């Protein structure tokens, strides 16, 4: 049986989280909230509480640090995520991965669909699976539909690394982890990736570890 705080209305649960102050605790793989999907946001928090929750998600993402964070990753099963990427990588890496800076964005009730058939595979990690990375083949371009925190409609095409971030965070809201889409032969510790597989593309890792790239 879940503890009372897990059965409380979402607004109460968020207030309880925010009351502790500071970055929110990030839920690690193995807890059901990461696998059960999310409720569409339809005003459960109210404008003021939503604003506070979004700011807490942003602070937590920065502190981790990461380039995206979904509400289930802090134990809240609402269809809300935040993304932001200053893209602090060498030019060679940025060009190979299509990584360009992304401003802070709030994704409310997001969904995506592929644009075209091209796929790109790169090492990817997750704040809820600390210490590990694996190669994930994802759509190279996607169309995102959602609302922002003000309820304004968003309909935008993302390519390259921003498309990867959108897919990763939206997947969280559907109960999916990046490992569900990963080439498991590529699974590596952060230390192994830094020491061996830091090239702009994972081609060397594919050859050495025995998996195929798309």
Write the layout of secondary structure elements.
Blueprint: H1 4-7, H2 10-19, H3 46-63, E1 68-70, E2 80-85, H4 91-97, E3 102-114, E4 119-125, E5 132-139, E6 141-147, E7 153-159, H5 160-173, E8 182-189, H6 190-196, H7 203-209
Antiparallel strand pairs: 1-2, 2-3, 3-6, 4-5, 5-8, 6-7
Helix pairs in contact: 2-3
Report on the architecture of this protein.
- The protein has 214 residues and is of the alpha+beta class.
- The chain has a domain at 24-120 and 138-179: Peptide deformylase (Peptide Deformylase, Alpha-Beta Complex), CATH 3.90.45.10.
- The protein contains seven helices and eight strands.
- The chain has helices at residues 4-7, 10-19, 46-63, 91-97, 160-173, 190-196, 203-209, and strands spanning 68-70, 80-85, 102-114, 119-125, 132-139, 141-147, 153-159, 182-189.
- The strands form two sheets. Strands 1-2-3-6-7 form a five-stranded antiparallel β-sheet, with helices on both faces. The protein has a three-stranded antiparallel β-sheet with strand order 4-5-8.
- The radius of gyration is 17 Å and the shape is globular.
């Amino acid at each position: 049986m879940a503890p009372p705080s897990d059965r409380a209305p979402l607004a109460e649960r968020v207030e309880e989280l925010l009351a502790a102050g500071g970055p929110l605790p990030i839920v690690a793989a193995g807890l059901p909230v990461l696998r059960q999907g999310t409720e569409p946001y339809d005003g459960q928090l109210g404008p003021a509480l939503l604003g506070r929750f979004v700011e807490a998600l942003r602070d937590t993402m920065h502190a981790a640090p990461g380039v995206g964070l979904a509400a289930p990753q802090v134990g809240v099963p609402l269809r809300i995520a935040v993304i932001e990427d200053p893209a602090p990588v060498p030019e060679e890496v940025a060009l190979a991965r299509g990584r360009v800076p992304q401003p802070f964005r709030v994704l409310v009730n997001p969904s995506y669909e592929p644009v075209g058939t091209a796929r790109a595979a790169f090492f990817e990690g997750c704040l809820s699976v600390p210490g590990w990375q694996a190669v994930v083949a994802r759509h190279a371009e996607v169309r995102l539909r959602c609302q922002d925190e003000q309820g304004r409609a968003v309909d935008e095409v993302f390519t390259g690394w921003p498309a990867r971030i959108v897919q990763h965070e939206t997947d969280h809201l559907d109960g999916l982890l990046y490992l569900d889409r990963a080439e498991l032969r590529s699974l590596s510790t952060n230390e192994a990736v830094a020491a061996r597989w830091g090239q702009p593309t994972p081609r060397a890792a594919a050859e050495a570890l025995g998996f195929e790239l798309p």
